[in-house]
Write a structure and sequence with these properties.
about 140 residues; 6 helices; elongated
């Protein structure tokens, strides 16, 4: 039963699962590949990358689109956001990658970057490279 489920939905489950909880799902995907149910390269890694990228962009867009509304409801956040804006102006790429490695900051980091004054002046290709570096550097993914 598990074999047929993984054969039919394994890669889709990894893609959707990594959009919500990446590490746990990627460990399961790696184990499934180890057991021969799925192909690690390229499909498990690709599904994990796409799911993680969707998650990152979703949080960024939520911050960009609804950030001002959140600040209206929580004006006490504004000084903190201004501080984060300063850091992002100086260390944009470093923070974009670094926030992904700090537990608890993955979600809020994407929202904060979206809410910041920093434009996506970083080309989308550069953002893809940054996120790809993060995804491929995860020891449980490769």
């Amino acid at each position: 039963m598990l074999e047929s489920f993984l054969a039919k939905y394994g890669y889709i489950a990894i893609l959707l699962g990594t959009a919500f909880e990446g590490e746990t799902i990627m460990i399961m995907g790696g184990f499934s590949a180890h057991r021969g149910y799925l192909e690690l390269l390229p499909w498990v890694v690709l599904a994990g990358f796409v799911g993680n990228f969707i998650q990152n962009m979703t949080y960024f867009v939520l911050g960009r689109r609804y950030g001002n509304r959140m600040l209206e409801k929580h004006p006490d956040w504004k000084p903190r956001l201004q501080q984060v804006n300063g850091w992002l102006e100086r260390f944009q790429s470093l923070l974009s990658i670094g926030l992904r490695f700090v537990p608890g900051f993955r979600t809020i980091g994407g929202v904060a970057i979206g809410m910041s004054d920093v434009s996506l002046g970083m080309a989308p290709g550069q953002y893809i490279i940054i996120i790809s570096t993060y995804v491929l550097s995860k020891p449980n993914m490769v």
